[in-house]
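Subject: sequence -> structure tokens, single chain

Hey, anyone have a minute? Need the predicted structure for the following. Not urgent.
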Amino acid sequence: MRLRIRGFWVFFGWALVLFLGGCGSPYLFGPTKVGSSVHLEFQDEGRGGLGGDAQMALYERGTESVVVGWEHFFGYDDDFNTRIHNHIYRGGVQFNVGLLSEPPAKTVTKATLNYTIQTGTEAPSKGFIESCATKLLLAKEDWHGIPEVDIAKAPDTILGDLYKDGLSKSPLGSKVSVDVTDAVKAWASGAKTNFGFVFVGSTEEYGLIKNNDKCWTLLGDLTLRVDYTKP
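Reply:
Had a minute. Here:
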């Protein structure tokens, strides 16, 4: 029996900043970096560690989306060999809010992180498929994520400190907004370094798990709206 642990994360990103009107109008920031991390633990004598359905869905979408949650696989190749895969997914997004620190002076009054629950799956089924991304972290260091970077050299988890728990478990297609005012204020003032946000699933269970349960979600249309005032 062999237990192997492997992960990878890659990064790609681009920036979009829209000015919605004249002086004092809110900023709508697009992401400068988007990526997902995959922690994989597996026992598989014949095939090695295989990618999960969530990774396939992420690559097929081909947009600036992230995958969040987990998926298990358990089965038999023959009478002697079992296949066990445990994937744990996290999604990271970073916005360049440097404009908030440039003259003239600005006071952030509200900051809202927005995203769409694009697709996903749950097993066993609970009826309507809901978002599995229930926690938001503040990333604690620079990171990269799928689909860039040399997989063999990439760490397997985007690290962060818990910032918000109980994110909306709305069904697929829903648009979600999260108040992130205090985090953006800290970044704009220089009190904290901006490494971005990390979405985490409701459960992160490590080890070789003998079931086929799963709960993963793709999140996309990521934007950060910042309202501010000038003296």
